[in-house]
Design goal:
- The chain has 25 helices and no strands.
- With about 400 residues, it is mainly alpha-helical.
């Protein structure tokens, strides 16, 4: 029995020693392989750069016979690394070499490989290559059962460009059940404004997610020419469609749609009202000051915040409207107006006139303090006073507060 136990222990020790030797040898061989490939890669990079810079074309000896599979694999990797930044001549030479040596055909075949990893890698490589002849294979890869492979094929088509790629990606955008339409939208955006007409033509048949992504795309790529499309979307039954359309009008600087945005300030859904207010500020719509002022009474904070910010963007007329609201009986309106005037620094700038030698400026500032005192609590007034750098301004505020004590309404 003891002999058997001893034999088992010896066998276990031998097994552990064998495993240790295997790990050490494997690590050593791996380091040798990495070192060798690093040296070969450096040689191939130098040879490739010499080849691509030559005029007329001269192929260096190191590239004439890539006999080993390692050299061939490394040179393909070098080509992929050089393609993105290469000029037209360099790209043409690399593409021709890859075609002549069957690499492009290998990548195309790998799009149908059983391994999803190989399919995805092949799609990514074809995207770097940007060979128009590979477009049909990449379009077919959009039907792959694996989402990651489909997205890599979509990115490759986006990089490739052309009618076939554009049409395939627009079809993908309309199918929000199989695609991340936001990512497809990003790919289409990188293809430029030429995609807009076809996307807008497909818009009526799109699902909700695709329509929202399309509106974001129009806002990114569009011009005021797309204003009628966005104005029409302001009447959509979906509140998010209406809100995106209102936001898009502001981003496109579509000044002709001010009246429609003003009407959207009365929309029953607050996201639409909020986006309409924001866009009116982006459009510098001075004519909308009365409606934006009214929007500060809205019960939704985002609407009030965007309306106040829009008034700030309108310059002196908008800031005057905010100041006028400091004495408003509506608590929501006056608090939002005060918050915007404080955060923008406009309140302190106007209060600084209390130290002015100009009697008219000083009188206007005193009226501002009286409006604050009539509606704000004593604590809030003290905070405003303590923030002033000029002692003369602080003293003037103290005197005015004493003469105009806070009302019960302000105290609440």
């Amino acid at each position: 029995m003891r002999a058997a136990v001893a034999l088992a222990i010896m066998l276990l020790i031998l097994l552990l020693c064998g495993l240790m030797v295997y790990v050490v040898v494997r690590r050593y061989l791996s380091d040798l392989s990495i070192s060798y490939e690093g040296r070969r890669r450096a040689v191939l990079v130098a040879a490739a750069e010499t080849w691509l810079d030559s005029d007329p074309e001269r192929v260096p000896p190191a590239l004439e016979h890539l006999g080993s599979r390692i050299d061939r694999r490394l040179f393909v990797e070098v080509c992929l690394a050089l393609l993105p930044d290469g000029d037209a001549r360099a790209r043409a030479r690399i593409t021709e070499w890859l075609r002549r040596n069957g690499v492009v055909d290998d990548w195309t075949r790998q799009l149908g490989n059983r391994s999803s990893w190989k399919r995805g890698r092949a799609a990514e490589a074809l995207g770097v290559l940007r060979d128009p002849d590979t477009a049909p294979a990449l379009v077919n890869a959009l039907n792959d059962k694996i989402f990651d492979v489909r997205m890599r094929a979509a990115k490759a088509l986006g990089a490739l460009g052309g009618d076939q790629a554009r049409q395939a990606l627009i079809r993908a955008l309309t199918d929000d059940s199989r695609w991340s339409v936001i990512r497809i939208s990003d790919i289409l955006a990188d293809m430029g404004t030429g995609v807009l007409l076809e996307i807008l033509a497909a818009f009526p048949a799109m699902g909700r997610g695709s329509r929202l992504a399309t509106l974001d795309l129009v806002a990114r790529l569009g011009t005021p020419e797309q204003t009628p499309f966005l104005v029409n979307c302001l009447n959509d039954e979906d509140r998010d469609i209406r809100a995106r359309a209102a936001a898009g009008i502001g981003r496109l600087k579509a000044a002709d749609a001010v009246a429609e945005l003003v009407a959207s300030l009365a929309d029953p859904e607050w996201p639409v009202r909020a986006m309409a207010a924001k866009s009116l500020g982006d459009l510098a719509a001075i004519s909308a000051i009365p409606q934006l002022t009214k929007a500060l009474e809205d019960r939704e904070w985002w609407v009030r915040s965007n309306a106040a910010d829009a008034l700030r963007k309108l310059g002196t007329p908008g800031l005057d409207a905010l100041v006028a609201l400091l004495g408003d009986p509506d608590r929501f309106a006056r608090d939002q107006a005060l918050s915007m005037l404080e955060s923008s620094g406009e309140l302190d700038r106007r209060l600084a006139a209390l130290a002015s030698s100009d009697s008219a400026e000083r009188s206007t500032a005193e009226g501002l303090v009286r409006s604050l005192a009539s509606r704000q609590s004593a604590d809030r007034l003290r905070d405003i006073r303590d923030r002033q750098q000029d002692a003369t301004v602080r003293t003037a505020i103290d005197q005015l507060i004493t003469a105009e004590p806070a009302t019960d309404e302000a105290a609440t």
